[in-house]
Amino acid sequence: MTNLSKENQNLKIGVLGSGQLGQMMCLEALPLGYDFYCYSPDEDSPSEKAGARASIGFYEDLSSLKTFLSKIDVLSFEFENIPKSTLEYLESQTKQIQIFPPPRALVIAQDRYLEKTHFRKLGFRTADFFHLTKDTAKFEIAITFPWIIKTLRFGYDGKGQLKVKDENEYKNFLDKAFVSGNEEYLVEEVIPFQKEISIILTRFQNGEIVCYGAVENEHKNHILDLSIYPARIPASLNLEATEMASKLAETLGYVGTMGVEFFLKENHIYLNEFAPRPHNTGHFTQDCQSFSQFHLHVSAITGNFPPTDVRPRPTLMKNILGNEYKESLAIARSLLKDDRYQLHLYGKREAKIGRKMGHINFKGNLEEVNPLFHDL
């Protein structure tokens, strides 16, 4: 158990967003004695079902948001796509309330151009990129095809992305790209990577960092399908990725848990993106026989100390989507006859194709898993 100082035991935690990440934060916070609040436009949310005290309101409604802030002692996020104007307002409130991570970390994370530019300033290798606007569309783009063209903000799980293989496809894209004239995109080099990995780390208020090491990730249709811990990569690359993620957290003045994604190509690491919150690829930590990413996040934002020993054991995580959900749920429940499997459902009201409905963890190595696990 992480040390809990007496003055921090009764803090009221608030989170912007009310989805499954907030739900899993709440499930760690309540047993530690914290009251947990969430704010979002959504009713009957996963967080509320877990015991969070919900306030319903739009992120742009600063009056309602101010009322929400008056109820809590520390604010965090389970969702980074908060309007920039709201983040600027929160930045102005940091003397009145503790906010972790700092709002500027979300400003950078939600803008793909700012994010990639920040990485480059730190000396990290990334895909080549170009900021495409109505004004810059007249310039030649010195990036070899194929490209990925991404909306600058508010994309996830492959949404807001288009692969462009040649000049003709690019011209077709431009014909429809600037309906309002204010649209912005990031044109990005396609990296033919061998593996995708992520680093889940937690930075505490005293500057200490706790990191699990690299996780190996596999996707289907641009959505995370399987996470394998530990990643099957050389120790030198594991260390390099960990050091890069730690440096990024330090430059942001980050407090809390974050996920950092990388591509591996020919023993080179390319930094792809980061998420300023607990991350889907870190869900294995709930059953890795050590501290979960959500426990560490709650400990960090409430001013407690890092644990002295974090030793995760091999664990797999498989996402359960809304596709053929009844069949997947039946398979998942059949696996629970083996106590190495642990099912985590989010309580979402409607199963939709591509929607993350839950996940299942397996305490063990990939070669030990039941073949039915792959059918989910």
From TrEMBL:
Pathway: Purine metabolism; IMP biosynthesis via de novo pathway; 5-amino-1-(5-phospho-D-ribosyl)imidazole-4-carboxylate from 5-amino-1-(5-phospho-D-ribosyl)imidazole (N5-CAIR route): step 1/2
ATP-binding listed as a keyword: yes
Keywords: ATP-binding, Ligase, Nucleotide-binding, Purine biosynthesis
Pfam families: ATP-grasp (PF02222), PurK_C (PF17769), RS_preATP-grasp-like (PF22660)
PROSITE patterns, per the entry: ATP_GRASP (PS50975)
Domain ATP-grasp positions: 116-302
EC number: 6.3.4.18
Reactions that this protein is recorded to catalyse: 5-amino-1-(5-phospho-beta-D-ribosyl)imidazole + hydrogencarbonate + ATP = 5-carboxyamino-1-(5-phospho-D-ribosyl)imidazole + ADP + phosphate + 2 H(+)
Signal peptide segment: none
Molecular function, one GO term: 5-(carboxyamino)imidazole ribonucleotide synthase activity
Keyword Chaperone carried by entry: no
Sequence positions that bind ATP: 112, 150, 155-161, 188-191, 196, 219, 272-273
Superkingdom to which the source organism belongs: Bacteria
Summary of subunit composition and partner proteins: Homodimer.
Cited function: Catalyzes the ATP-dependent conversion of 5-aminoimidazole ribonucleotide (AIR) and HCO(3)- to N5-carboxyaminoimidazole ribonucleotide (N5-CAIR). Catalyzes the ATP-dependent conversion of 5-aminoimidazole ribonucleotide (AIR) and HCO(3)(-) to N5-carboxyaminoimidazole ribonucleotide (N5-CAIR).
Family statement: Belongs to the PurK/PurT family.
Protein name: N5-carboxyaminoimidazole ribonucleotide synthase
Gene: purK
